[in-house]
Structures are given as C-alpha cells and as structure tokens.
Amino acid sequence: MSPGRSYHHGDLRAALIEASFELLAECGLRRFSVAEVARRLGVSSAAPYRHFADRRQLLSAVSTAAARDLRTAIEAAADAAGDDPAARLAASAGAYVRYVGRTGAGIQVIYAAELYDVADDARREQTRALMTTMLDLAGAAGGARTYPEVVLLAEATIAVAHGYTSLFADGFFARNSSTVDDIAARAVEAAGALIPH
Amino acid sequence: MSPGRSYHHGDLRAALIEASFELLAECGLRRFSVAEVARRLGVSSAAPYRHFADRRQLLSAVSTAAARDLRTAIEAAADAAGDDPAARLAASAGAYVRYVGRTGAGIQVIYAAELYDVADDARREQTRALMTTMLDLAGAAGGARTYPEVVLLAEATIAVAHGYTSLFADGFFARNSSTVDDIAARAVEAAGALIPH
DNA sequence: GTCTATACTACGATAGAC
DNA sequence: GTCTATCGTAGTATAGAC
Lengths: 197, 197
Fold this sequence. Notes:
Two copies of one chain form a homodimer. Chain A is mainly alpha-helical. Chain A has helices spanning 12-27, 34-41, 55-80, 85-103, 107-110, 121-140, 147-169, 180-194. The termini of chain A are far apart. Chain A binds chain B through residues 29-30, 107-108, 111-113, 116, 152, 155-156, 158-164, 166-167, 170-173, 186-187, 190, 193-194, and chain B through 29-30, 107-108, 111-113, 116, 152, 155-156, 158-164, 166-167, 170-173, 186-187, 190, 193-194.
C-alpha cells in the first residue's frame, strides 16, 4: 500500500473483476461501463484495456467468476437442504436469488447475449458446469424421467428463480419492503411446487 | 400520405409510441433511445421533444399503453380458458409471455424504476388496473384465502411468467429453438403448479 | 502498467429558422 | 410541427509519454 507517484495495484485485473461485480449489483448490466469501473478503482479509463481487450472480455471474465461462484453457492445450498432430492433442487432457487441479489450477476450476465460470440474457454467451461449442476439436481428430483423432462424441470427452476430475482432487482416488490431472504424463501417454495411428485 | 417538402405525420405522437414498442421488442429497454425511435420514423431527433418533454415521458406513455393492452390480453386469455378459476389464472401467465414476447414491453417497462417518480395519472390508472386484474384472478383461484396470500399468488404467477419471458428474450432457450408459444405453454403449466389445491 | 490526451460515436436536450 | 444546428455529457477505444 506504499503510495508512489502513480497508482499501483498489485493485481488490477482481479480488482477490475471485483469492482465490476459491485457495479453490476448497484446498477445492473444496463448501466455497466468500463469507464465507471475504472473510476471506482481510481485508475484512468485507459488502464482496464491493458488487462482486457475490450468491454466484452471484461464481462466474460465476470461471467466466468459468477458461474463458478453461483455453482458453489447452489451446491452448498443443496447440501444444506439435506438428502431429499426435491428439497435439494428447490434450495437451488433460493441460492440463486441470494447470490444474484447480492452480486447482480445472474443469468443475464452469465449468459449475456452480448457474450455469445466471445471466445473464452474458461467461461464456456464454467457455464457448462453450472448447467450440469442444475441438470444433476433436476435429474435426481422426482425420480427417473426422460432427459428432455429433466431439462424442462431445470429450466423451470431457473425461470422461477430468475423471475423473482429480476422483479426484486427492479423494485417490483418495494412496497412490501421485502428482503432478499424473503424473496429467496418464496422462490424455494415456488420451485418446490414445480417438481412432479 | 401526400408527400410534401417536409415529413408530415398525421399523428407523430402515436407513431412514436408505436415505434417505441417495435424498438423495445427488438432491442429491449437496454438499448432504447429516443434518437433511434425518431430515426426509424424518418424524423429528426428533435421532433419527439415536441410531443414528449423527455425520454421518460415517452416511456411513460408506452408503459400506459402496454399496461392497458397486456391487461386486455390477460382477460381474453382467462376467458378463453373457461370457467375453472385455476385455469384462468394459469392462462394469464401464457398471455404475459406471448404479449411481452411480441412487444418487448413487460414488467420491466411497465413498472420501470426509471418511471417511478414520473407523474402520469393515466399510467398510474392503467398499472393499477393491471394489478387489480391479476389480484382478481388470483383471488378466485384456489378458493377463499387471506389477502396477503392472494397477493403472494399473483406475484408468483407474474414471477414465473416474467422469468420465462426474460430468459426467452435473452436467448437462454436458443439451442432448443423454442418458439414463444412453446415458452408460453411452459409458463402456463408452471403457473398452474403454483396454485394451491 | 499506468498515465494523459484524444478521436470517435451516440444520446439527451435546446435554440432558432421555416 | 418539423427542421437544422448545436451543446453537453458519457462511453469505447487507441496513441504515445513516462
């Protein structure tokens, strides 16, 4: 932390990703900008371009980290839910709401259309692993079913979690003064209702 | 339609709202701009400001029209679903997916945070009527319940419809080459599963 | 590896001509 | 009621100094 004449990060690359999360949590992908991230770190608007070729490469790195962390959070929530496969799948919806409510980096960022044609093997791997985790949870819940049915169940769980999260982020629930934990609990309940039994 | 020296709309105000819907459907609220709407109508970027004080007033008018039309679509879908109250509520989710898939003007536009402090009595009235319609459908479905429970059920229905719509708009389902009607059907099924019975 | 400075683009909004 | 022209702001990205 010794102050020199010029600002010196130990690892600006990592700091940019971290600050990007904070900006996304506050403003959403809508108002995300490389310039604002740089401003928050006290570096010039040119500095990020030493570490990322362009805006999309930075967002791709954020997507990679978010997919990894979200998957970890989902697996932890599933394990905390116990052995019942339905409860484990439903718990993933709650983990999604809490993680995205805290970080702002959900499906809209992780699978952003803007990143569709950005080549990034690390991101591809993490997003695939995240989907695999959801498919595993869906496959275990409700007993044996066909693969297409498992996909539909996983997508339904994501849809309900994403729906609640998105409405929450947009202030739709503001009047109720709901907390992220309230919304997470409602998402878990709804996700549980979607599981065939 | 007689071509004069300068572009002359019979009703530029209405044309601006209509073109705004098309732009929202194509690009979402993210890339909506007054300038682009004007460009598509072949008028100057200054022309819209004769009819709307600023960007938010235009969006507020779009929100008003969307709330009215969405409510109409939901009521039509409920009526088409027959007399079963649960089927009527579930059908509203399908109407939401189809309307928003077609117009791009869903909850994110109708209840946009950007419009929170824009005074517009027409919008307030239409958004209230839309919510009332959803609460009526939720109140009728599943028999007598407390008001807070009715609100939770209405919000759950909106969340699942919005979740599917948002994922669809962001291309999350692209690999399946799903159509909006496929997604609407899945939203109806999911919404039906959320209703207590 | 970060800086300053700059080119370019785009949008929101206003002034004044017609 | 629409135009042209313009200002101010902000973002993406690059060039070249240090």
